[in-house]
Specification:
Elements: E1 2-5, H1 6-11, H2 13-21, E2 26-30, E3 33-38, H3 69-76
Parallel strand pairs: 1-2
Antiparallel strand pairs: 2-3
Length: 80
């Protein structure tokens, strides 16, 4: 972990980002008090792969038919 002042962070931002990209951590301090931390962004979810579920289930033609009026009202939040 690297500790730098705000001035050092502004002056060396590119170098500090390179350090973070390699898995490091940078703490930025003001008057010897830590106020911010630079850390790598973790990927929240795995990459999506098109066609991953191909052939595992069927969607019938009724899926594409319009909804009945009563159900459509519920989806739209109408209380006619």
């Amino acid at each position: 972990m690297t500790r730098v002042t705000i001035h050092e962070a502004k002056t060396n931002l590119s170098r500090l980002i390179e350090e973070v990209e390699k898995g490091g951590e940078v703490v930025i301090s003001r008057r010897d008090k830590p106020v911010a931390r630079l850390v790598p962004i973790e990927q929240a979810r795995p990459e999506r792969k098109p066609g991953r579920f191909a052939g595992q289930f069927d969607i019938g033609p009724e899926f594409f038919e319009p909804l009945p009026e009563e159900e459509l009202r519920l989806w739209e939040g109408r209380d006619d």
